[in-house]
Amino acid sequence: MEFETRAIHAGQDPDPTTGAVTVPIYATSTYAQAAPGKHAGYEYSRTDNPTRHALAEALTSLEGGAGTIVTASGMAATSLIGWSLKPGDHVVLPDDAYGGTYRFFAKVLSRHGVEFTAADLTNTDGLKKAIRPNTEIVWTETPTNPLLRISDISALSEVTHEAGAALVVDNTFATPYLQQPIALGADLVLHSTTKYMGGHSDVVGGAIVAADADVLDGLRFLENATGPIAGPFDAYLVLRGVKTLGVRMDRHSFNALMVARFLEADDRVERVIYPGLASHPHHGLASRQMKNFGGMVSFIPKGGPEKAAAVTMNTELFFLAESLGGVESLIEVPAAMTHMSVVGTALEVPEDLVRLSVGIEHVDDLISDLDRALGAT
Questions:
Q1: CATH code, domain with 49
Q2: Does residue 351 share a domain with residue 222?
Q3: Which of 51, 197, 264, 303 is 20 to 30 Å from 18 at the Cα level?
Q4: Same-domain pairing of 255 and 186
């Protein structure tokens, strides 16, 4: 079956009891057993829940993995992978990682003896310089947040596996509709399902898709032991969002490209960053590795940080807010919002950088909104 069909049907057969075509919200903490230890596959909802299980089955199908862990947030998924490490282990992070990812490794796991190095992962030379004998994980985002750099997943996978490490790909920005990391050699794929997978800015969630069943079993043990699970209603909301992922990503990508072209042609803008533009340094790689270029656009207006802030405060359709991936458009200044945790580090982002999450409104309205905001003083 094709992607769009699996997004609607994988793990989502009609309910065998009632025939309901939508997976029910199983709002239960526990399950009756026929005899001690004899149950119908469910015993306690921290361990598993039918609604969460259906979402896991759907995501496994879409990412092409061996199985999926569904968590309470993207950072819960990140933490679960992090807690699989031990003191003395080393992690390579991109030098343009999401601020929350950096914060977890720098401020939490480092206190438990886990080491990390931030490196340029847009080329294998950067990885080769950063990798160590004790490297257990190479962690990449592609596109990265918020500078939208692209990493060659296949090339990183070769270097990572030669070193005996595992490659983790944060696929939040691309989604499995636009990019298939496991098919390119990734060992684990991570999502903040809060974003495009949910798609409606009404749920917080995360997921880890594993390429290997044994690795999945280890993560399932940690999931049950530490409990960072998604509740059934949250799993239901993400499952609902997944059904329309393909059509939404087509529209996000189209709108983002039109917005990026408008900004690139505007003399009030210093620089536009979007993988779908020929001016992007990794445009060729993105064209080969991705089906389309996604809904995220970053740009630097002329006028410095003050102008960047003014633009974000003068849009009407682009809401000034953190997060991304919803049907509505959002705008922010990462240095003052989502990436404050990396200020003063090697991962610091420009103060005048503006990040757009381009929604699925009519693109002419979005361009008019940005045009007005760029003209504001």
A1: 3.40.640.10
A2: no
A3: 197
A4: no
Measured in whole angstroms, how far is the alpha carbon of residue 148 from the centre of its chain? 12
Give the tokens for residue 69. 């862990």
**pLDDT for 377:** 64
Which DSSP helix (H) or strand (E) runs through 151?
none
Q: Structure pTM?
A: 0.96
Six-digit token string for 369? 């909104």
Q: Last residue of a domain, which of 243, 273, 308?
A: 243
Strand partners, 356: 297, 331
Residues 250-259: tens digit of each pLDDT: 999 999 999 9
Domain boundary among 243, 271, 303: 243
Residue type, 53: H
Six token digits for residue 64: 């092409």
Two tokens at 177?
Answer: 């509709």
Angstrom distance (rounded) from CA 260 to CA 357 = 12
Query: Could you tell me which residues come within 8 angstroms of residue 303 by beta carbon, excluding any fewer than 6 positions away?
Result: 310, 352
Q: Which two tokens stand for residue 185?
A: 């050699």
**So what's the pLDDT on residue 339?**
85
229 DSSP assignment? B
Residues 211 and 121 in one domain: yes
Residue 297 carries which side chain, given as an amino acid letter? V
Residue type present at position 173: F
Catalytic residues: 46, 98, 170, 195
